Amino acid sequence: MKNLKKRLQQGDTLHGCWLNLGSSITAEIVGSSGFDWVLIDLEHGAGTEKDVLHQLQALEHTPAAAVVRIESAQRQRIHRILDLGAEGIMVPRISNATEAAAVASGLHYPPDGNRGIAKMVRASGFGQNFPEYYKTAKDNILGIVQIETREILHHLDAVAALPGIDVLFIGPSDLSMELGVFGQLDHPHFKDAIKATVNAAQKAGKAAGILIQDPSHYKTYHEHGIRFIACGADGTFVGEGARNMVNKLKTQLP
What's the pLDDT band for 1 if we cut at 50, 70, 90? Predict the structure, then answer.
C-alpha cells in the first residue's frame, strides 16, 4: 500500500490522472512518471475488468497508487476489484447517503462493512499476508464517491460524514450537465456546487477532489481547498504526443 489515505488525512495534496486505454504498458509508463495515484477507468475506459489485473501488476513497482473506478456500486464489483489489489475504489453518480453508505460498507470487512472474506486473493499475497491485510485494510483502502448529480448536492454533509468515504470527487462534465450549465465551469451554479462540496468535505475532515482538463485551472481549485486533483489520461498523452510530433515534422518541410 502506498498510503494515499494517510497522506490525505495528513493534509497532503495528491496528483493523479486517468488510465483509459486498458493497457498495462501505458499504466506502467504513466505510473513511473511521478503521479501520486492513477485511476483505472472501468466506467468509460477501453479496458474491461479482465484488464485490471495486468494494469495493477504493472503499477505495483511504480510510485503511483492504483485506484479503480467501477461502473456501479454493486457489492460484488467492489469486492472483486479490491481482491485484485486496488488501493482505492471510485464509484460514479452517487445521489444520496444511502447509496454512499452501501459503497462504504462494500469497502470494508465486518464489523465495519460487508466485504466478503477470501484469503487466497492477490491483495493478501494469495493468503500469505491475509492477517496483516485484514488488520490494515480499513486504514489503507480509499473510498471515493463522485459528485455528479443534482440530488447529491442536498446530501453532501451526510455523505461526507460516513466512515469509509474519504473523498468527495467532483465530475465537472456530468455535474455541470445536471445543473443545466454544461461545460460552463465559471457559472455561479457550478461554482456554488464546488464550494458546497469542499465545505462538506472539510467539515467532516475528508478531502475533495476533481478532474481538471487544463493545468491552468489547478491554482483556482487548489485555492478552493481541493487536494485530490487529476489531470490528463494515458490516451490523451499518447494523442497529444503523436500530434505534436506530426506538427514538428511538418515544420521541417522545405
Answer: confident
* 184 close to 175: Cβ distance less than 8 angstroms: no
77-101 burial string, b = 16+ CB within 10 Å, else e? Answer: bbbbbbbbbbbbbbbbbbbebebbb
Query: Tell me: the pLDDT tens digits for 80-107?
Result: 999 999 999 999 999 999 999 999 999 9
Which residues are part of the catalytic machinery? 44
CA atoms within 13 A on the CB side of 7: 14
Distance between CA atoms of residues 67 and 52, nearest Å: 10
Question: What is the rounded CA–CA span in Å between residue 86 and residue 81?
Answer: 6
Query: pTM (2 decimals)?
Result: 0.96
- Closest alpha carbon to 71 in 46, 94, 92, 100: 92
Q: Residue with C-alpha cell 489531470?
A: 231
Q: Could you give the domains of the chain?
A: 4-247 (3.20.20.60)
